[in-house]
Known about the structure:
Helix 2 packs parallel to helix 3. The chain is of the alpha/beta class. Helix 4 links the parallel strand 4 (79-83) and strand 5 (101-104). Helix content is 42%, strand content 19%. The protein has a single domain (4-119), classed as Response regulator (Rossmann fold, 3-Layer(aba) Sandwich), CATH 3.40.50.2300. Keywords: Phosphoprotein. This is Two-component system, chemotaxis family, response regulator CheY.
Amino acid sequence: xxxxxxxxxxxxxxxxxxxxxxxxxxxxxxxxxxxxxxxxxxxxxxxxxxxxxxxxxxxxxxxxxxxxxxxxxxxxxxxxxxxxxxxxxxxxxxxxxxxxxxxxxxxxxxxxxxxxxxxxxx
Length: 122
């Protein structure tokens, strides 16, 4: 059975690029357009990994990750932050919230798939 990845980004084009990359590697993909929307997708189904933007309307990525970590079913779901932000302070904030990796846009599909395969839940 293939593994499911939730992509959270307010940019439809970024979601599309990440989705094509992941589907090409055999993953199932669920999309959320911001943190609030993405939380509604975490409805008990198995999600093996989350890829989230940082800067989004309604609920930013850091707040979203903090919320995910409060949900017993998704507490251990690994999160990769995908963002234009490369600052150490933001990375630290992401790590503190529970993010496992930080991929800076624009990203190379191969780099993204390496991070996903390393972190995705068995």
